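Deliverable D5.2: sample structural annotation.
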Amino acid sequence: MAAYTAIDNPELYFQVKAYTGTDASPQAFTLDGDEDMQPDLVWIKNRGYANKHVLFDSVRGVNKSVTSDSNAAEVDQNSDGGYVSAFGSDGFTLTEGSSSDNDTNDDRYTYVAWCWKANGSGSANTTGSVNTTKTSANTTSGFSIVLYDPSGSDPSTLGHGLGAVPKVILTKVTDQSGDAWKCYFSAVGNDKVMQLNLSDAEASSDAWNATTPTSTVFSLGNDGATNGSGRTVVAYCFAEKQGFSKFGSYTGNGNADGSYIHLGFRPAWFMQKNTQDTGDNWHIFDTKRDTGNQTDEMLFANASTAEGTGNAIDLLSNGVKIRNTSNGMNGSGDNYIFMAFAEQPFVNSNGVPCNAR
């Protein structure tokens, strides 16, 4: 009989931290879980104000951010709106930038930080035809951070370090502006991309050389945003782990008694996007900002707007139930992709079920 879950305690690999800014600099924040977790990717959003999303990771360096809602180059947050100055053994430290700290720690606002554990600052991976500058991979949780300088050779391959096939790869050029996020979703296909910073529908692309990733490498084709010579690119790679993470698609039914997405766990974090229509946002929900069902406090990965409400969903013990008729989440016959990470597996490895919220 197959195991119920690969990971009994998701808090070891993913946690959500909701906090109120303090204006103190530096200011250490401790994660709320029962287990200590040193994050390697921290994605922060100001909930109350239209400030950009800022993503920091241990591979590029703690003070350097990219933003999910624009095509801007990487920013050294020392001279901008506050930054992560350290990843601690159970959280992170924020330090004020020279201009402001609105992005991370202003005492007028509340924030949320979504935190993933990889494997530290990483090292070069020589598995593919192009060596990575650094790859930090956690094979248990199925998450890796890959930093590389593309060769421009079409095709080329890069080692992701996961030992399993990634179903999602989020890439961003870091050293120059103008290049959108190019994202691989297995549910969309290896000849298309989704763009995290845009509300656009799926688009045909040779970014992945029309080749599905393997358990060791992912492929690059003729796309400057993933394989342009002279650029530097970061890739966040995710392989599915039973009871901890799920990446896939669902079809909307246009009914307030909406589609159900089976995950096999109680989700801590859920993001989805309509793949067919331009103009629909990437909706993000979590269990720290909204602690009960129905859940309707939304942030948009592609927009700097403050947190809004509406378009309710239920985060259940074993999946997600859509409770709205919006085209962005549940248009009749429309196709949607999603990413989800667990708060608790539906049943742990000892056969003990989790409770609903």
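Annotation notes: The chain has a mean pLDDT of 94. The two ends are 28 Å apart (CA to CA).
The annotation will be released with the project's public dataset once the embargo ends.
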